Amino acid sequence: MKKIAAWFLLLFLALPVIAQEGNLPASVRQACGPYLQNVTDTSFTVIWTTNMDAVSWVEVAPDDGTNWNNTARPKYYDLRGFGRRPIAKVHHVTVKGLEPDTKYRYRIMMEGVTGQYDRVGISYTPGYGLDVISHPTSVRTKARSYDRLHIAMVNDLHEGDSVFRRLFSDAKQQQYDFVVFNGDMTTDIANEKDLVKHYLKSAAELFGSSTPIYATRGNHEYRGNDALKWMDYWETPTGKTYFSVCYGKFFFIFLDSGEDKYDGDIRNLGIMITDQYTDEEAAWLKEVVGSEAFRHAEVRIVFSHMQPDPKGWFGNAVVANKFVPILNRAGIDLMLCGHIHNYKLYEVGTTNARFPVVCNKNRELMTLDVDKNNIRLKFFDPDHKLLRSLDIKTRQY
Ligand SMILES: [Fe+2]
């Protein structure tokens, strides 16, 4: 009896110790990323997420063979707090003032925030940085000109992370200049964690820490309680869901093709106002095709989740009626879409577009090899088996 009482006494005495250990500061770690966004000839943006609220920064070093710890590396902070460091789980840091066509090493750094006490204090976990030996991260800034580009595109994976990993299992060897996610990568964004779980974590691991990613918004990315958080995970040149980028004289337009049903449709839950948004987008598109960079481009490719079809669903008609007339006067070489979950080539004359339109299938990876005379499309299954290829001569339309 005495023994049992002694055990209870011991347990009673130990409880505060156990409780105290439970209160020890958690360790901050990156949960997803880093992955590259908006790489230009003098800058790049890194996005990553943390397992807890944190403040963050990025350190940058030249690719000069020096040990990372050879000297203090310059620090770049998340500037979205307008002069105050954001305490967040999703981190955006832009590094500026770089040389074109130059490789840099970078390292993401973070300190978890365990408590905020108004103006009295903020408590932090010990700092943590990505290990540069086991996780070497680097980026090459854009060159001023390119002879050719090697690009990959997927779409409509609808949460198929295992297929995604197979399609990109050789991405490091492929050394894509950039990768495009052309919409509907998840069926909805019920929770922002879905974006991480269903493809972003894999994308970062397989190629995203050194290969820029561009994403168009598909109709399914308009759906779900966290749909508005979509742009927390991307950094685009315009700050909007539509934007353009050029690589030398290769010009790319990324459209937001909206929802597939009209704004007032009962299934849009009274929450959609795409009419005004796509009007603004069309006005922006007019400016883009009038720009000097666009007019001097040798190759012009448009990415749009939905394909144009004046007689199709509302979303297809929006692309056909608002965007295609502007593009028809602009000398577009090719539009690349997804949405229909099948491969399809719409030759000139089969839609209202005066350029070919190609839809990529949902479980296939399409590569583009672009030079100033030709765009070669290749389509692969998840085992990297070549299924078909297609050549589009440039400057025909
Ligand atoms: Fe779609």
Give a written overview of the molecule.
There is one protein chain. With 397 residues, this protein is an alpha+beta fold. The chain has two domains: 30-140, Immunoglobulins (Immunoglobulin-like), CATH 2.60.40; 148-393, 4-Layer Sandwich (Purple Acid Phosphatase, chain A, domain 2), CATH 3.60.21. The chain has seven helices and 20 strands. The protein has helices at 2-22, 161-167, 171-174, 193-208, 274-290, 292-295, 314-328, and strands at 30-37, 44-62, 75-77, 88-95, 103-116, 122-124, 128-129, 137-140, 148-154, 178-182, 213-216, 243-247, 250-254, 299-303, 334-337, 344-346, 357-359, 365-371, 374-380, 386-393. The strands form three sheets. Strands 1, 2, 3, 4, 5, 6, 7 and 8 form an eight-stranded antiparallel β-sheet that branches. A six-stranded mixed β-sheet has the order 11-10-9-18-19-20, with no helix packed on it. Strands 12-13-14-15-17-16 form a six-stranded mixed β-sheet, with no helix packed on it. It is globular and about 65 Å long. The structure holds fe (ii) ion. Fe (ii) ion binds next to loops. The site of fe (ii) ion has 7 residues, from loops.
SSE layout and pairing:
Layout: H1 2-22, E1 30-37, E2 44-62, E3 75-77, E4 88-95, E5 103-116, E6 122-124, E7 128-129, E8 137-140, E9 148-154, H2 161-167, H3 171-174, E10 178-182, H4 193-208, E11 213-216, E12 243-247, E13 250-254, H5 274-290, H6 292-295, E14 299-303, H7 314-328, E15 334-337, E16 344-346, E17 357-359, E18 365-371, E19 374-380, E20 386-393
Parallel strand pairs: 9-10, 10-11, 13-14, 14-15, 15-17
Antiparallel strand pairs: 1-2, 2-3, 2-4, 2-5, 5-6, 5-7, 5-8, 9-18, 12-13, 16-17, 18-19, 19-20
Helix pairs in contact: 5-7
This protein binds fe (ii) ion (FE2).
Residues 183-184, 218-220, 305, 339 line the site of fe (ii) ion.
